[in-house]
């Protein structure tokens, strides 16, 4: 659906809104982001994910977007909190244990 993937001197900044079915064959729309160490701590994940949520809600008309992270990935969970997402459950996707967060359109604030 929506995807940003600049590669700067082999460093990675990757962001994507996944299509229905991409989250282990569920109908959920997942926002995902991967940043290599040089990009950490700059607010880039939050800024990019917020833009993705806004695009998903305003342009695509989505009602709900989810995100997952490994339980030990506290930085990713902080991004989800900053976006206004709420923790819903522990789950198992992509062959690993994850925490599952979500936000509905009416709770999103750009």
The whole-angstrom Rg is 13 Å
Helix coverage percent of residues?
Answer: 10-25%
The averaged pLDDT comes out at 82
Q: Output the helix-strand order.
A: EEEEHEHEE
Question: What is the structural class?
Answer: alpha+beta
Q: Biggest sheet, in brief?
A: 4 strands, antiparallel
Spatial shape: globular
Count of DSSP helices? 2
**What is the terminal separation in angstroms?**
20 Å
Strand content bin: 35-45%
DSSP, total strands = 7
Describe the structure concisely for a colleague.
The protein is α+β, with helices and mostly antiparallel strands and 110 residues long. It contains two helices and seven strands, in the order ββββαβαββ. The N terminus is likely disordered.
Spell out the key features of this protein.
single chain; disordered N terminus; four-stranded antiparallel sheet; 7 strands; three-stranded antiparallel sheet; 110 residues; alpha+beta
Description:
The protein has 2 helices and 7 strands, in the order E-E-E-E-H-E-H-E-E. The protein is of the alpha+beta class. The strands form 2 sheets. Strands 1, 2, 3 and 4 form a 4-stranded antiparallel sheet that branches. A 3-stranded antiparallel sheet has the order 5-7-6. Strand 6 (86-93) and strand 7 (96-104) form a beta hairpin. The longest helix is centred in the middle third of the chain and has 16 residues, at 44-59. The radius of gyration is 13 Å and the shape is globular. Mean pLDDT is 82; it is low at 1-12.
């Amino acid at each position: 659906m929506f995807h940003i993937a600049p590669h700067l001197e082999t460093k990675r900044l990757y962001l994507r809104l996944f299509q229905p079915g991409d989250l282990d064959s569920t109908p959920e729309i997942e926002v995902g982001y991967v940043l290599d160490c040089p990009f950490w701590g700059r607010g880039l994940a939050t800024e990019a994910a917020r833009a993705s949520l806004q695009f998903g809600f305003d342009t695509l008309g989505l009602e709900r977007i989810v995100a997952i992270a490994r339980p030990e990935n506290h930085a990713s969970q902080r991004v989800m909190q900053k976006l206004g997402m709420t923790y819903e459950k522990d789950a198992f996707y992509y062959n690993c244990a994850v925490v599952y967060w979500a936000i509905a359109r009416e709770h999103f604030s750009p």
